Amino acid sequence: MKQELETLHGKALQELGDVQDTKRLGDWRVTYLGKKSELTTLSKQMGQLDAESRPAYGQMLNELRQALEGAFATTKATIEEAEQNARLASETIDITLPGRAIEVGAVHPISEVVREIEDVFLGMGFSIVDGPEVETDHYNFEMLNLPKDHPARDMQDTFYITEELLLRTHTSPMQVRTMERMHPHVPIKVLVPGRVYRRDEDDATHSHAFTQIEGLVVDKGIRMSDLKGVLEAFAKALFGEHQRVRLRPSYFPFTEPSAEVDLVCVHCQGSGCRVCKETGWIEILGSGMVHPRVLDMAGYDSEIYSGFAFGMGPERIAMLKYGITDIRQLYQNDLRLLRQFAGV
């Protein structure tokens, strides 16, 4: 049996000398030191020996196991060191290579337009406020003169979460929230930019999620002429001193009277073109005097106070300002488009 153990010892060391990587080293360990190895099989044969031979045979088995485990540990350390050195050599960084140029980002055109609009109205004494995008039916509709059975609700196809919770369809709920918060103080002059959601089919001019900017002024003696003056100052600041605005009668449940606001076409300067359908004007926002019922429900006596409100879409203004023809281009993150605004 001693000869058998010596033969196994020599064979194991010879194969271990040919091992060059950790995978083959693992295979060698299973073959010669594992539970199903030849060494384990020989250990189980001790029971067949007589009592006098067992101690000597057991000692030889232990010495062989210790010798193989020691050889395994030495080889493992050598292989791991070699592999680590090879890995470090392959990962060496050449610090003399030139660095990669870092591209300078650009403010998104919608964000840029929102900032410009905010700057204009901040200069006129407005404050910027924010509101929740998940709104209640109470503030999104009822407090804006749109009770549950009002037919005008059909104008805004709504994303409902529950019967009383929804994704806001406009930033107008902040009209009421602001008046409730500031009551009974005046004047109120706020601008509310934010995301709104409607179940529109996405096309060149519509999106199911878009940005809206709401404006509200409440005080004693506010008139329609004040609304036109503010919007004309805004148009001149954003599109140039040559700009003019016109108001056309319209309908919104929360303003009375209501008006659509047009700008002189920025493409043809009023002479008529395909974009403005030969009219010389382009619609830019909706507006009107705050409905007396809205004032009363918010706590302001409509016999004493009056106000105006307006709402615009920065996407629409960005399209006019930068000559973008498809609103979807503003949401596709196409770097070919966005890089054009790096120097704007």
Structure notes:
Helices cover 40% and strands 19% of the residues. The protein has 344 residues and is an alpha+beta fold. The protein has a 7-stranded mixed sheet, with helices on both faces. It has a two-stranded antiparallel ribbon with strand order 2-3. A hairpin with a 2-residue loop joins strand 6 and strand 7. The radius of gyration is 40 Å and the shape is elongated.
Q: Which whole number gives the mean pLDDT?
A: 87
According to CATH, the fold-level topology of the largest domain is BirA Bifunctional Protein, domain 2
User: C-alpha Rg, in Å?
Assistant: 40 Å
By CATH, the architecture of the largest domain is named: 2-Layer Sandwich
Keywords:
alpha+beta, 11 helices, BirA Bifunctional Protein, domain 2, EC 6.1.1.20, two-stranded antiparallel ribbon, 2 domains, 344 residues, 7-stranded mixed β-sheet, cytoplasm, ATP-binding
Give the helix/strand layout.
Elements: H1 2-18, H2 22-33, H3 38-44, H4 54-90, H5 109-122, E1 127-128, E2 134-136, H6 137-140, E3 165-167, H7 173-182, E4 188-197, E5 209-219, H8 224-239, E6 245-252, E7 255-264, E8 281-290, H9 292-297, E9 306-312, H10 314-322, H11 335-338
Helix pairs in contact: 1-4, 2-4, 5-10
Main location: cytoplasm
GO molecular function, one term: phenylalanine-tRNA ligase activity
Protein name: Phenylalanine--tRNA ligase alpha subunit
